[in-house]
Amino acid sequence: MAMRKIDPRVKVTRRNFLQSSAAAAPAATLLAGAAFGPESAWADATTLSPHVMATLTQAGRDIYPHDQIGDAAYRKAVSHWDTDAAATPATAEMINDGVASLDREAKARFGTDYITVPSEMDRVAILQAVESGAFFKAVRADLVVSLYNQKELWPKFGYEGPSAQHGGYLHHGFNDIDWLSSV
Amino acid sequence: MASSAKFAQTDDSVFVIVGSGAGGGTLGNELAQKGVKVVILEAGARYSIPDFMNDEWPSFQQLAWTDPRVASGSWRVAKNFPNLPAWIVKAVGGTSIHWAGASLRFGEWEFKAKSTYGDIAGANLLDWPVTLEEMAPYYANAEYRMGVNGTNGIPHLPGNNNFKVMQAGATKIGYQTVFTGNMAINSLPRDGRGSCEQIGFCFQGCKSGAKWSTLYTEIPKGEATGNLEVRPLSQVLHIEHDSSGKVTGVVYADATGTLQRQKARAVAVAGNSLESPRLLLNSASSMYPDGLANSSGQVGKNYMRHTTGSVYASFDKPVHMYRGTTMAGIIRDESTNNPKRGFVGG
Lengths: 183, 346
Prior knowledge:
The complex is a heterodimer of chains A (183) and B (346).
Chain A: H1 14-22, H2 25-32, H3 50-63, H4 71-78, H5 80-87, H6 89-110, H7 120-130, H8 134-146
Chain B: E1 15-18, H1 22-33, E2 38-41, H2 56-63, H3 76-80, H4 113-117, H5 132-146, H6 161-172, E3 178-179, H7 218-223, E4 228-231, E5 235-241, E6 247-253, E7 259-263, E8 266-269, H8 272-282, E9 330-331
Parallel strand pairs in B: 1-2, 1-8, 2-4
Antiparallel strand pairs in B: 3-9, 5-6, 6-7
């Protein structure tokens, strides 16, 4: 009767993934092409520009990188900034200024916008340059909920869901760990 | 709750308690059992166990004080979430709905912080005016009525996966006192409540009722005497006193925000670490310009709830850390005062 099932987490470690995918990156970049850049997903943005929304999306992935999660989840996480900006001019200014500061850093260091800096570690360095500012703090703190509270993602992190309706985990593997050598 | 009392706002023979959590709910029941007429004024709503949600954010919205707070200083929350509402509960049962259930006695030296630790820069220490020996009967009483496992012959909770990982690591580096804690969580059915089902959402309101909370222990017992009335959605804003300085009643906002006055023979303030000092300070008068019960000038200062540190790790193989009692166990080997470690306390 155990609820035990195959561990749904992706087994590849993040570092392995970055190394193994490095060789494939140029091909992916070619496929993406100029006509279908990341801005194209944001044609419906009203107050913030597609470029700003695409930058927020990339920054979201760079702040909380999960290779097993698609871009749609990161887009969903940041989409509310467009409506927030429409409601509050100060928010629009904070986000626009923040994205401009990312692009300024990116241009100074790598001669291109943040979203077109090819290396994740280089983009992380750009984020670190602005991490003490209000923009980074607001975006990062928001992601804790806007990204991680998307229930459809929970199984990808290995979470089986609430158990009270099943009588708890008492009879569903609460103590079933079997790989500790001293237990 | 058919037998629950209903007292007039003009009845100045009632004992008013502000807050219905661990302190207020328990005091209300004790007084009611002794025949004292009690009105508990609770700022939050009244929920029951089926209302609790096994989902962190909606549960937080349901149970917590959602007022924005202002955090300052050098701690991590002030840096990352300076306006995060405090995770203390605004509901009947108070933070006894949210607490982990950990029920440890102070060590002897912890009653004597100033004499033991000396002067600590930036801190404001005092010795408690009571000793462990004096408190022992009260600890015993509390452990019995809350059903603390590891006391009164109540078995400890079984170890869940989280505990086993901690136990394996702790044992490997030589710790001896490793167990699942002294928790006010039934490991066997007791006091009309079932035993722990290892649900994993202890902090969102225990859906098995195994964890002690005044919501479904002290409060209904007090109400059954006919001497206790709990008035939810009643936030006390001000404590009033007469020209002699004696408390006469409280002013509170009801569910619609309308101000109401409840007369009282005495008022006990049991609103936890933020709301109690706020109420005392907001009750300032010409006779008590610094607020009530503030001859020390310390009300609203020295805020400290828990000091906690969190460590997370990922393992190659699954632990399923969400399965089971949230506070899975304890290591007590380091629970001594040993300043050689570079800090006082333990």
